[in-house]
Write a structure and sequence with these properties.
The termini are close together. It is globular and about 40 Å long. It is built from 4 helices and 7 strands; from the N terminus they run ββααβββαβαβ. A hairpin with a 2-residue loop joins strand 3 (64-69) and strand 4 (72-79). Helix content is 31%, strand content 26%. The chain has a 7-stranded mixed β-sheet, sandwiched between helices. By secondary structure, it is α+β, with helices and mostly antiparallel strands. It has a single domain, classed as Aminopeptidase, CATH 3.40.630.30. It has helices at residues 34-44, 47-57, 101-115, 128-138, and strands spanning 6-11, 25-28, 64-69, 72-79, 86-92, 120-126, 141-142. One of its GO terms (molecular function) is acyltransferase activity, transferring groups other than amino-acyl groups.
Amino acid sequence: MASDSKDMLVDLYQPIIKELNSTYEIKRVLSPNSDKVLKFIEDNFSLGWVSEAKAGLYKPNPTCFIAVDQDKIIGFACYDATAKDYFGPTGVDESYRGQGIGKALLLKCLVSMKHDGYGYAIIGGVEPKNWVFYEKASGATPIDNSKKIYTRMV
């Protein structure tokens, strides 16, 4: 995790937090698809993200969503995986980026967090290159002096 990364805070009651119409289907992961989702994450991202996603997938009501192009997983996003009230990890297949899929996944999770009773969401350990995306997509603001839960990793 980059040392200049920061946690970001999202107010879940602002009007920007709403579900989007997406070209691709966004749906909550069903347990029989968990292994496919983990394989997608491992093949496209990292084992660390696989571990984080497992925490969101193995709940009675999974807190992970996927974007699907026909029967192909093309993106994912989780919340309450690494810690309560945290959004992430999230990622979109490189060949599908730039089509609004990441934003749709983000907002689907944030809307779900709001329905789960959260007033705010934390996006953990965001690198500076991604700040603008989260600011525009969700109104997120960097948390100065954030403690970064990821510093506990070994």
